[in-house]
Amino acid sequence: MKLAITYDNGQVFQHFGKTQQFKIYDIQEGKVGPSLVTGTGGQGHGALAGLLRALGISVLICGGIGPGAQEALKSLDITVIPGITGDVDQAAQDFVDGKLVPNTEALCNHHHDGPAHSCGDHGCGQHTCGH
C-alpha cells in the first residue's frame, strides 16, 4: 500500500489544501519501506484528491483538512487520518505500529473570527485546524 503525508521540511504540513509537497511511503509487509517527496505541481484543494488517487495512495496523514476535501478523498477510497503533527517519518512509523490516533476535530472550515486569520496561523488556540 502507499501512504502519503502532507510535507514541509520534515514535518507534517498543517493545511492539506495548501500543501506544496507530499512524502509518499511504500508500506510493505507491515513495515515502512522506501519513500520519496513529490511536489503537488501547484495544485490545491480539490485537485489534490485526484493527484493522490493517480499516485495510488490508500491512506493520507495530514494536519488540518476541510470537510469537502475529506469527502473527496473518501469518495476515492483514500482513508484520511487528520490532526497529526510532528515528524513525518515518525508519523509513518506510528501508522504502521498502530499508534497513530487521528484528531477528528482537525477540520478547517474557513469560518474563523478576526482579521487575517487563516488555517495556516499557528498557536492561536481559537480553532481546530490541527494546530
Which strand-content bin applies to the residues?
A: 15-25%
The number of strands is 6
Number of helices, where a helix is a run of at least 4 consecutive DSSP H or I residues: 3
Low-confidence stretches: 110-131
Characterize the structure shown.
With 131 residues, the chain is α/β, with parallel strands linked by helices. The protein is built from 3 helices and 6 strands; from the N terminus they run ββββαβαβα. Strands 1, 2, 3, 4, 5 and 6 form a 6-stranded mixed beta sheet that branches. Helix 2 (67-75) links the parallel strand 5 and strand 6. Helix 1 packs parallel to helix 2 (67-75). The chain is globular. It starts with a strand and ends in a 35-residue tail after the last helix. Mean pLDDT is 83; it is low at 110-131.
Descriptive terms for the model:
131 residues; alpha/beta; 6 strands; 24% strand; globular; disordered C terminus
Architecture blueprint of SSEs:
Blueprint: E1 2-8, E2 11-12, E3 21-28, E4 31-39, H1 46-54, E5 59-61, H2 67-75, E6 79-81, H3 88-96
